[in-house]
Design brief:
Helix content: 25-40%
Distance between the termini: 66 Å
Strand content: 25-35%
């Protein structure tokens, strides 16, 4: 009997769901999930009941496309990147959700060091459309997470050499954590920018020829 019940459960699982009511379209759907044996002759089963319309709508709902990496596309055009550093970033839950949906921009953003703390300024993160009254401010100051020794070194280089800290990209790790890559950068002169454009155009032409 146990083997028979297992086959029965396997059959229904393969079918997906079955209707125990007479109306074929609007009736609830009953999906068996587990069988419990009380004796050789008695058993019970655990089921889940779904509304037919919502069940079908969920099945047809397309999967959301999430953004894994956000790039600052103008950074390497505007600046010469001398070195890069990876940092964590303190974000609110609604900010993470908006970033996953691609509703954020690193354009015009920059990092600042105050005392022994580094923050990301002017990064645009659109408020989450399903957020509550506790939704975030789009361009609030956001703390970056670096070791204090690393912050001190960056502070010295910025003050001594007149450099800037520019966000290059923001991305999700394999474990779902948000990281940001910042570059210690020197602003390019007009000639340097023209050379960067020329180099970029030449690379595009070479890719097309391939």
């Amino acid at each position: 009997m146990r083997e028979h019940c297992r086959k029965l459960l396997h059959f229904f699982a393969g079918f997906g769901a079955f209707d125990v009511f007479s109306t074929p379209v609007l009736a609830p759907l009953v999906v068996p999930t587990e069988i419990f044996f009380h004796s050789d002759a008695e058993f019970s089963t655990r089921v889940k009941i779904f509304n037919t319309v919502s069940f079908m709508a969920a099945a047809k709902k397309p999967a959301e496309i999430f953004t894994k990496t956000l790039l600052n596309r103008r950074a390497r055009y505007e600046y010469e990147i001398l070195e890069t550093h990876e940092a964590g970033i303190a974000l609110k839950g609604t900010e993470v959700k908006s970033i996953r949906l691609g509703k954020a921009s690193l354009d015009e953003s920059f990092a600042m060091i105050r005392s022994e703390e580094i923050t990301l300024e002017n990064m645009q993160i659109t408020p989450y459309e399903h957020g509550t009254t506790e939704n975030h401010e789009p361009k609030r100051s956001r703390k970056l997470l670096l070791h204090k020794a690393e912050i001190r070194k960056l502070k010295y280089k910025i003050s001594d050499k007149g450099l800037a800290l520019i966000p290059l990209k923001l991305y999700f790790t394999a474990k779902g954590k948000v990281k940001i890559e910042i570059g210690l950068a020197r602003g390019k002169k007009l000639y340097d920018k023209r050379e960067a454009i020329k180099k970029r155009d030449n690379e595009r032409e070479m890719r097309r020829e391939r």
